[in-house]
Structures are given as structure tokens and as C-alpha cells.
Write a structure and sequence with these properties.
Layout lengths: L5 E16 L9 H6 L3 E17 L3 E5 L6 H9 L6 E7 L2 E4 L12 H11 L4 H15 L14 H12 L6 E5 L7 H17 L2 E5 L3 H7 L2 E6 L2 E7 H9 L1 H5 L1
Parallel strand pairs: 3-7, 3-8, 5-6, 6-7
Antiparallel strand pairs: 1-2, 1-4, 8-9
Helix pairs in contact: 3-4, 3-5, 4-5
């Protein structure tokens, strides 16, 4: 029996170190001191400040907030890219993040080699990868150059290949930062259709965006973030209304 997808966060915090220089003195200009990093003080900058929430199977959650509110940082924590400094975080279910689909492309390897490498990293077996190769090549439209080094591809070609492989694996929990909008018009339309199918098939979606229309289309629940805190949690319509009202500024 398949376990239900579930995310539980209780008072999670995340702080990152900052390096600041003390006021310079005569000795602080020493080359040796600069090389050793002396004269620097370590400080912590809080990015997430005591967030608590619970996501369950079937949830379609939109993260809403101004730039710097903590949306992308929270997505990275949920994706396992960053680890909370404190608090309790439990995640049940296979996650996939589409925070940067082009990241991790091996430029000196061929397109076909990258398909295998990214497939293995996603947990697919060789047989599974080979079964999906025709679909990947058809979507990416790279059949004629798939055996060429990726460094010879344009940025659009690299994006098509990476996106095609990434949306082959079906996760239980999909973590998405903004909408795929790069590339030519034909690719944008095809990627939208493919991504919508990907979202429909996953059991939980966590999506950050500045677009109210897309949030309303994809999500049923909204978490409004401000300065690293959750200031509202409710239906997506109420969350957007809260964010667009003066209440957000007062929170």
C-alpha cells in the first residue's frame, strides 16, 4: 500500500553566515592577515524565522510574497538543498524540484550521455531511461544532434533537453519555482502542456509565483510569506486577497 505524501514543519528556522570586515586598522592591511581571513567577523542572517505548517496528500499549495519574503528559500529547504538550522521538518514521499532544470548539465558530455546521467540521478534504472528516450528526443527535438557535446547546444536546446528529462520522472511531491517561460513560443506552449500533465499526476504541489492568475489555476491553498515568516494560510483566493490588501503591509 502506497504511503500518503505528507510534509510537517514545526518552528523551522534557517540562518546563513555573512562575512563582514571590522573597521580597518594599520595591521589589518597586512597581506598575511587578508590571506588568513583575519579581521573578519562571522555573523548570521536569518532567512526563515519560525515557520510552521502541514501539507497533506492532494494539497496544491501556492507560496505568495514579495521578493525576499522567503519563497525560494523555503522551496530549497523542502527540496533538501538547504537544511533548517532549527525546528522540526518531516517529509514523506518522493520529491522532485524544478527550481533550475538546466542545472547539472555536463557540457562536455553528449546530449545522450546527459540523458543517462540525469536519469540515473533521478533514480531511474537503465531500462527505464531507455524506455523514455524516444519521448525525450521527440519532445526536445534534438534527434540530429543528440550525440554532439552539450557545449555546442544553444541555451534553448539545453533547456529543452533538461526539461524533457526532468518531466519524465513522476514524483509524489513536486516543488516548482515560477513557471517555465523561456524559449521560443512553440516550446513555451509545449512545455506548458507537458508541465500541466506532470502537475496533474503528482500527489502534492508546492509552487511559488508572482502571478495571481497562474496561482489560481494551479493551487487551492495559499501560504503568504513575509520576511521569512508565514503571515497567512488559507484558500488560494483568500491568500491572494490578503497579499494584495493593506493587511500584508501591516503583518
Amino acid at each position: 500500500m502506497q504511503t500518503e505524501s505528507h510534509i510537517l514543519a514545526r518552528d523551522i528556522h534557517l540562518s546563513v553566515p555573512l562575512i563582514t570586515r571590522r573597521r580597518p586598522t594599520i595591521r589589518s592591511f597586512s597581506v598575511a592577515r587578508d590571506l588568513l581571513g583575519r579581521g573578519k567577523e562571522r555573523q548570521l542572517r536569518p532567512l526563515i524565522k519560525g515557520m510552521s505548517f502541514e501539507f497533506n496528500d492532494g494539497d496544491r499549495v501556492g507560496l505568495i510574497g514579495a521578493n525576499g519574503a522567503g519563497k525560494t528559500t523555503l522551496l530549497r529547504v523542502l527540496a533538501g538543498v538547504l537544511r533548517p538550522s532549527g525546528g522540526r521538518l518531516q517529509i514523506s514521499g518522493k520529491t522532485q524540484n524544478l527550481l533550475n532544470v538546466s542545472m547539472g548539465m555536463e557540457k562536455e558530455a553528449t546530449g545522450m550521455e546527459n540523458i543517462y546521467l540525469r536519469g540515473y540521478c533521478s533514480g531511474m534504472s537503465k531500462k527505464e531511461i531507455e524506455r523514455h528516450i524516444p519521448d525525450i528526443l521527440e519532445f526536445a527535438a534534438l534527434e540530429k544532434v543528440i550525440d554532439d557535446p552539450v557545449r555546442t547546444y544553444s541555451s534553448g536546446m539545453q533547456l529543452r533537453l533538461a526539461f524533457a528529462v526532468a518531466t519524465t520522472v513522476q514524483p509524489e511531491i513536486l516543488i516548482l519555482d515560477e513557471w517555465i517561460s523561456a524559449g521560443d513560443r512553440f516550446f513555451v506552449q509545449r512545455s506548458r502542456e507537458r508541465l500541466l500533465g506532470h502537475i496533474d499526476s503528482c500527489r502534492m504541489l508546492i509552487f511559488a509565483s508572482h502571478s495571481s492568475d497562474i496561482l489560481k489555476e494551479l493551487c487551492t491553498r495559499g501560504l503568504v510569506l513575509k520576511s521569512g515568516k508565514v503571515v497567512f494560510d488559507g484558500s488560494i483566493d483568500d491568500a491572494i486577497a490578503f497579499y494584495e490588501s493593506d493587511l500584508y503591509q501591516q503583518a
